[in-house]
């Protein structure tokens, strides 16, 4: 598991899938956003750095009810 | 079974808490983090930055759930996460939701972190706010 994911691209992808941004806060240079997932869960996402790890991205997608995206984003078909 | 070291102590003047962050180093040198008690995940490029970010991330949890969602929703969320008052949890939680009691200590469930999050950092925090 060695991929890094562009954080801004990641945010755009989850928003385009129907997830809603509920709350944003900043704490001494770090940015935290709370999204409403497709499953109704409120999920904290930290988008402070340019990249997040593949592991973190997968956990966010799972919590947001976007588990099917994990296959589409991280596994090449064929 | 509760994890004695991880708690949320609510008083009339504020909240004290302690938590444990777990991390693992990825092949590309970055770090993936998990705070099981709050089910929070994040990344960092160093352990030092991740330790600090974990502290801020938990603070953002309180900010979101208390200031944005309201104290009752905060109580219901920590209940959902598995935090329990050691004696008569349901009764005392209801009393707190009805504002009949104003202080209680919640202990975290014994939560296992996902496989390979094997390094841990223990941290404490304090928030002063009118409850």
Characterize the structure shown.
The complex is a heterodimer of chains A (78) and B (131). With 78 residues, chain A is of the alpha+beta class. Chain A has a single domain, classed as 2-Layer Sandwich (Metal Transport, Frataxin, Chain A), CATH 3.30.920. Chain A is built from 3 helices and 5 strands; from the N terminus they run βαββββαα. Chain A has a 3-stranded antiparallel sheet, with no helix packed on it. A two-stranded antiparallel ribbon of chain A has the order 1-5. In chain A, helix 2 runs antiparallel to helix 3. The longest helix of chain A has 10 residues, at 7-16. The model of chain A has no long low-confidence stretch (mean pLDDT 91). Chain B is of the alpha+beta class and 131 residues long. Chain B has one domain (2-125). Helix content of chain B is 31%, strand content 36%. Chain B contains 3 helices and 6 strands, in the order ββββαααββ. Chain B has helices at residues 47-68, 71-80, 89-97, and strands at 2-10, 14-25, 31-35, 40-44, 104-109, 119-128. In chain B, strands 1, 2, 3, 4, 5 and 6 form a 6-stranded antiparallel sheet that branches. In chain B, strand 1 (2-10) and strand 2 (14-25) form a beta hairpin. In chain B, helix 1 crosses helix 2 (71-80). Chain B starts with a strand and ends with a strand. Chains A and B meet through strand 2, strand 3, strand 4, strand 5 and helix 2 of A and strand 3, strand 4 and helix 1 of B.
């Amino acid at each position: 598991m060695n991929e890094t994911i562009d954080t801004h691209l990641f945010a755009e992808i989850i928003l385009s899938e129907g997830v809603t941004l509920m709350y944003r806060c900043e704490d001494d240079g770090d940015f935290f956003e709370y999204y409403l997932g497709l499953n109704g869960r409120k999920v904290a996402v930290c988008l402070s750095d340019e990249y997040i790890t593949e592991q973190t991205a997968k956990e966010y997608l799972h919590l947001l009810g976007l588990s099917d995206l994990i296959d589409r984003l991280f596994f090449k078909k064929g | 079974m509760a994890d004695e070291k991880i708690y949320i102590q609510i008083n009339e003047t504020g909240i004290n808490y302690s938590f444990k962050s777990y991390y693992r180093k990825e092949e590309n040198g970055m770090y993936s983090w998990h705070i099981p008690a709050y089910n929070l995940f994040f990344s960092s490029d160093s352990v030092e930055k991740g330790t600090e970010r974990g502290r801020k991330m938990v603070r953002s949890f309180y900010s979101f759930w208390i200031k944005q969602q309201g104290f009752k929703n905060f109580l219901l969320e920590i209940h959902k996460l598995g935090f329990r008052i050691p004696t008569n949890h349901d009764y005392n939680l209801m009393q707190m939701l009805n504002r009949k009691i104003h202080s209680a200590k919640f202990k975290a469930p014994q939560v296992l972190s996902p496989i390979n999050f094997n390094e841990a950092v223990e941290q404490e925090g304090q928030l002063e706010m009118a409850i």
